[in-house]
Every structure is written in structure tokens, then in C-alpha cells.
Amino acid sequence: MASIVVVEDDVDIATLVAHKLRGAGHEVSVEHDGQAGLAAVREVRPDVVVLDWMMPRMNGIEVCEAVRADPALAGVRVILLTAKAQEGDLEQAFAVGADDYVQKPFSTRELSARVAAVLARRG
């Protein structure tokens, strides 16, 4: 199906997300901090990045900005997965180029559906 990079510093959440997305037929790789995640995105050039906001070394907003600034990554879709839930947080996420935003705590079914939706919109 699709190539997905999950960037999440909470190992349990990363494992859960990766398991659910692999179960849906996707090829998934996982990184646990923003710098490693950005490096993986540049190497893999995935269809989708599921990106935590609050992480060490680079936060999700910085990673999203770097992805959007790189013309070679123009087709990569970004879904922020975060506990940040204020209206201003949502506005900031979309302002830097996020394609979607899922708030923690989250349903893995909803996340899988949102991944499918951003994949359907590409092109």
C-alpha cells in the first residue's frame, strides 16, 4: 500500500501506531526523535509521516517545516499526532503545512482512517 514513517518519542505509542498501520498493509518505519525522523523522511521519501509534536532534538513543527521546505519531499503527507489540543496549536500545525491533525488520546481506527484519507487526496 503506502510507505509511512512514524516519528514518536513514546515507544509504546510508536509501537501501537506501527502495528496498526502494518496491519492495514503499509510499510512502516519508526524513529523516536525529530532529527532521526527527518533523516528517515529524507532517506525513505514516504507517502505519509505520522509525527508527534513534542519530541527531543527537533519538535514536530520543526520537522514539518523542514519537510515542506524541501522540494524533493513535496509529495509527502504529514499527520501530526499530539496531545496539544488548543485552537492555536491546530492553527500553527496547519500554518506550517500539516495535512491533518490527530489529538491524543486517539483511536487507532481513526488514525488509520485519516492515513487512508490523506493518501486518497494525494495526486
Characteristic key phrases:
123 residues; alpha/beta; Rossmann fold
In the predicted model, the low-confidence regions spanning at least 5 consecutive residues are none
Strand arrangement, major sheet: 2-1-3-4-5
Distance from N terminus to C terminus (CA atoms, Å) equals 15 Å
Global mean pLDDT: 95
Give a quick rundown of the structure.
This protein has 123 residues and is of the alpha/beta class. It contains 5 helices and 5 strands; from the N terminus they run βαβαβαβαβα. α1 (11-23) links the parallel β1 (3-7) and β2.
Question: How do the helices and strands line up, and which of them pair or pack?
Answer:
Layout lengths: L2 E5 L3 H13 L3 E5 L2 H11 L3 E4 L8 H10 L7 E6 L4 H9 L4 E4 L4 H14 L2
Parallel strand pairs: 1-2, 1-3, 3-4, 4-5
Helix pairs in contact: 1-5, 2-3
Protein name: DNA-binding response OmpR family regulator
Pfam families: Response_reg
GO biological process, one term: regulation of DNA-templated transcription
